[in-house]
Design brief:
Elements: H1 12-42, H2 63-81, H3 84-103, H4 105-114, H5 122-129, H6 132-149, H7 152-179, H8 194-210, H9 212-231, H10 237-261, E1 264-272, E2 277-285
Antiparallel strand pairs: 1-2
Helix pairs in contact: 2-10, 3-10, 5-9, 6-7, 7-8, 7-10, 8-9, 8-10
Length: 286
């Protein structure tokens, strides 16, 4: 059949063009909407603070948890001291203290009697610094602020410090009761020196947590405290020698034990206010 004159059937190419035009008309509103959403998404400002849903995976320090775990933790700290290496160190310290008691103490006593309190007022300063109560007070303050500020590293450090002081002071009390030697000034409870033992225990913990340079300063203070105990005629040289070894052994062992038990990887929120970015950070303790 011949089509009417003046009208032509659409060719295949023209039908494809017509179909594409129809599709363009149909999707134009949708594509405009998507483009607007993309633009809006790109213009969303970066928030200054992470979402409240971003919670760290590391548990926050809490007093209730510490009290519950305290007996077990103290027992683990005490067991960490019982090693062959520590036994040899304590044995060497005891042997050196015994040698000093038989050969050096009398001469040192006489020297301090002839030149009493050569440091003058500094004797009182280091007497306070080296007092076990002073060091325990500083450790307790750090512990309390770590709970308030949610500072996990400070919390671990203060717990190790306090535990080392508790074990050291308890050991000193037992040894003083067992030996009950006389002090150069005539008092009782000479062996070993509690000030010296506590100071070296503190220095050992500080070194383990904060490195050798800060530890060197702490050991220097401990040495000055030890000298004050002799210069102030509070202790013989043998008392100070064994006190230093005892404190070092306890502080080192407790600090290393705490660090090994608290090795972990923690997922924490990360916010950089200067760059205007936020995200997640992994914090590791090894």
């Amino acid at each position: 059949m011949t089509p009417p004159v003046g009208r032509e059937l659409p060719t295949r190419d023209s039908r494809i063009v017509l179909l594409l035009v129809c599709l363009a008309v149909l999707i134009a509103p949708w594509s405009t909407s998507v483009a607007e959403e993309i633009v809006d998404w790109e213009e969303v400002p970066v928030v200054d603070e992470p979402s409240a849903e971003w919670l760290p995976t590391c548990p926050s320090p809490r007093l209730r948890d510490d009290l519950r775990a305290y007996p077990h933790s103290l027992w683990e700290d005490t067991k960490s001291i019982v090693t062959l290496k520590n036994g040899l160190l304590l044995g060497a310290g005891g042997g050196l203290a015994a040698y000093s008691a038989n050969n050096w103490d009398a001469e040192v006593r006489q020297n301090t009697a002839d030149h009493a309190r050569r440091w003058g007022g500094f004797n009182n300063v280091f007497d306070v610094i080296g007092h076990p109560g002073t060091q325990a007070g500083i450790g307790a303050t750090l512990y309390g602020t770590s709970l308030i500020t949610d500072n996990v590293p400070q919390h671990e450090f203060s717990c190790a410090w306090l535990s080392s002081l508790i074990i050291t002071d308890a050991s000193v009390a037992v040894l003083k009761s067992a030996w009950n030697t006389r002090r150069p000034d005539g008092g009782s409870g000479g062996f070993p020196s509690g000030h010296t033992a506590s100071s070296f225990a503190s220095a050992a913990v500080i070194e383990e947590y904060h490195g050798p340079w800060i530890g060197l300063g702490a050991y220097t203070v401990a040495g000055l405290v030890s000298w004050q105990r002799i210069d102030g005629r509070k202790h013989d040289l043998s008392d100070v020698i064994f006190g230093a070894v005892l404190g070092y052994v306890v502080g080192k062992s407790v600090a290393k034990g705490h660090l090994q038990r608290h090795e972990s990887l923690c997922l924490q929120p990360y916010v950089d206010h200067e760059q205007g970015v936020s995200g997640l950070a992994i914090e590791g303790r090894f």
